[in-house]
Amino acid sequence: MTRVLHVLDHSLPLHSGYTFRTRAILKAQEAMGLDVRGVTGQRHAAQSPSDPEVVDGLTFYRTPGEAGGLPLVREWSEVSALADRIVALASEWRPDVLHAHSPALCGLAAVKAGRRLGIPVVYEIRAFWEDAAVGNGTGREGSAKYWLTRVLENDVVSGADRVVTICEGLRADLIARGFAPEKISIMPNGVDFEMFGDPLPRDHALAAELGLGEGPVIGFLGSFYPYEGLDDMIAAMPAIVAAVPDARLLLVGGGPAEAALRTQAESSPVADAIRFVGRVPHHEVDRYYSLVDVVCYPRKGMRLTELVTPLKPLEAMAQGKLVGASDVGGHRELIAHGQTGTLFPADDPAGLAAAMAGLLGSRAEWPARREVARSFVREHHDWALNVRRYLAVYQALLPSLDLPSVAA
């Protein structure tokens, strides 16, 4: 049986979009007949009861210690510790392929270990982390750290045997940097239909508790980062309520922008139509999804959102929800306007309001649009099917591997 070791920044039991994508990949690969395990670097900030640690039936190895020291020295120490852990692990559990996932530090460790072991390395980019830092407000485009992160990313792409990105935007950017197109494959975000395939009926008790009435309800469930554009959503609410008086906005989650958003909402002339819930346990998210008619993603226009496709709209479609989203590149790659969702101009509250009012006013079209979107996700973004794209990548590196049929 082919063995694949995934090299990770962090993993379950921590909850994040990163760990949920990892879980989906590993579970789907296991179901396909591969033997998979994960190893995390020193940034996995969770106390592990054992090493290896089994979480949700998946096995993860940990890298001991905590990197310290001056910048650059600290990061290189992390890379070296993770590379050493991979090499030590390989003497016990002999992987056929090292499959590293961004950030670049994980990729550097995998490339370093792969060369020592003579094992091919696949590097998977989920986002360019220098752009993610700008979007999260922790970095500045054009700064020394921004360019250093990009240089490290380029080094990993050069050193890896094959590269996988989650979308065409990232792949095209790498090709524009001079990397060979045939080296770079796409593994799009997907949905685990065992988790998202059976939406709950509307939780009327929860709706009453939150004072939502009968709606319609526009919702956002996720992290409140500035680039998500939730300030534009709040700014659009007066015009939406003027067109659809019973409309409500439900915001579930938290993050760096939360305080500013709450202040903005409190001063809105339709403050009573806006509900903040805060963060909720992961197992309760479905209850809040059940309240929402339209899930809205008003992302700002910037490099991060233009290049990267988000996972959340796919999950919403799988839940049978209508989707509205700004027309940034990452959304356009996922959403066909008027078919699988509604696109509106980015950074434009008036345009957002007009689009949402039009969508809310066309209830007769909702059932057909929900079904089209759900069918799109099932046909093109089901992890159980998409994960087979990895087989061609692994097979190209090691033709003698005993892999399941790529065409199966």
UniProtKB/TrEMBL annotation:
Keyword Disulfide bond on entry: no
Keywords from the UniProt entry: Transferase
Signal peptide: none
Gene Ontology MF terms in the entry: glycosyltransferase activity
Top-level taxon in the UniProt lineage: Bacteria
Residues annotated as domain Glycosyltransferase subfamily 4-like N-terminal: 17-190
A Pfam family of this chain: Glyco_trans_4_4
Classification via NCBIfam families: stp3
Protein name (record): PEP-CTERM/exosortase A-associated glycosyltransferase
Annotated source species: Novosphingobium taihuense
